[in-house]
């Protein structure tokens, strides 16, 4: 009598390689991680999103570092999923990039706080509201003496240029 062996084939996992990078890093990261520098950073969507006054901007968040350059990454981790799933942004945005401004200024002044406040103020004055990722202080955002440190018109122009 001949015995036939039945061989069971195990199911193997299928692996798909996605060619598009999920995270990209360039040399700007080294400047961003410098613990001595405080910066103001912006999250930019790949496509403009609608704001009030029928205006569009790629800026979806404005923030500042607090310590060790980690803050942009903490914010990106915490806010990017929420931003990409929000009803205002979801249908259009597929990618969020991070850019930053270095602010150097006068002694005794926390220039980064003032610069972030000036950016948020100018964004709100032109687009009618804060970026979608910023929620705190929407009504309480008033300038103190930021116009003594920065040209607010130039900040507004820079934000409009970045928004295109």
Key features of this structure:
5 helices, alpha+beta, single chain, 164 residues
Mean pLDDT across residues? 79
Strand content: 15-25%
Low-confidence stretches: none
Give the SSE string.
HEEHEHHH
**Largest beta-sheet characterization:** 3 strands, antiparallel
Helix/strand/pairing category = alpha+beta
* Strand segment tally: 3
Indicate the percent of residues in helices. 25-40%
Question: DSSP helix count?
Answer: 5
Spatial arrangement of strands, main beta sheet: 2-1-3
* Overall shape: elongated
Fold and architecture overview:
The chain is an alpha+beta fold and 164 residues long. The chain is built from five helices and three strands; from the N terminus they run H-E-E-H-E-H-H-H. The chain has one domain. It is 32% helix and 17% strand. Helix 3 crosses helix 5. The mean pLDDT is 79.
Give a quick rundown of the structure.
This protein has 164 residues and is α+β, with helices and mostly antiparallel strands.
